[in-house]
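Just curious: can you write a single protein's sequence together with how it folds?
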Amino acid sequence: MLWLGTFIAGMGFSEIMPFLSLYVDDLGTFTKGQLTLYSGVTYAVTFLVIALISPVWGRLADRKGRKLMLLRSSLGMALVIGLMGFVTNVWQLIGLRFLQGLFAGYIPNASALVAAETPRDKSGNALGILTTGYVSGNLIGPVLGGIMAQVFLIRWTFLLTGIFLIIVFFLSATLVHEHFTPVTRAQQAQGGSWLQAFKNPKLIIVLLVSTMIIQMGNNSITPIISLYVRQLMHGVGPVTVVAGIIAALPGFSTLIAAPKLGEYGDRKGTARILVFGYVFAILMYFPQGFVTSVWLLGIFRFMIGISDGALFPVVQTMLTKNSPQELTGTVFSWNQSFQALGSMFGSLFGGIIANLFNYSGVFTFTALTLLVNFLLLWWLVPEIRHWRQRA
């Protein structure tokens, strides 16, 4: 049921993402520099709010249950995203994107629920399977949204997204059940800092920062992907449809790779998968800024999905295996918070770098950032350096 919920949530959310910058362009008359900056801010403001509010929702999830958070998120986002179809200027859109951040959190709470109710030795496989739900939705969403935007109007995609999320709300309310032991406010207060409950708090912090940097790399591309596609197509042809397909391509490979990599990591060690994911991502990001054909861009975006299928589930699995079960909600809320920070910084940096160095600079920046993150992990987490001995 949670797989289906994350599938619909991912589809609804991703319908609008690939061409949100084109929607911004429709809301005013902007220079290229203004458009990239406004697009970056429009993406980033949601994630700034998520970063600030997620720990609060996480503590509430540990007290009241993850199902309640699923209902809060799906209903709130359905209303806010639906209203985006009626805005008349970019500031109204930015305001609604701000409110969207307050209601975000369906997929992280679904992950936390699965992690809490799955045996630890099977968590990698379970989270890998759940990832395919979200990724499958991401795969279909941009294509569906692109077709709707081409045939009708971009505004229709926001209304359709709201309808999909209402469906998620009712499915979650009626068919999702949780075996939950609540943690009282007093018990949380007695625990002191949540990091004190971990055997290896440094590892947890490093993993959270890695989540931020991985997501920063992914989201530095998002604000400019439709504009980059439009440039490669010289403004001729069904730009929104092609942009939707390009945005969806990583989902194909992630859908195939994530469960297999999760299962392999449970058997052979997650560190091996993490090393592969970083190296492969770095090698695939560099060439994307220098392609001259939208077809080549599509091939490299397809390859990026393999690294996504390695990195995100593995980081979540390592967090799960190194966390007390009673703090699962808290850990995943902080993971969402750092992921949101990565989305925010990625959106802002993507807009700024595209303005300064053109679109190609964004892909180079992403590759270099992931390289730095990988080197930090290699330095700070000894078990990653010694994966060969444990293999």
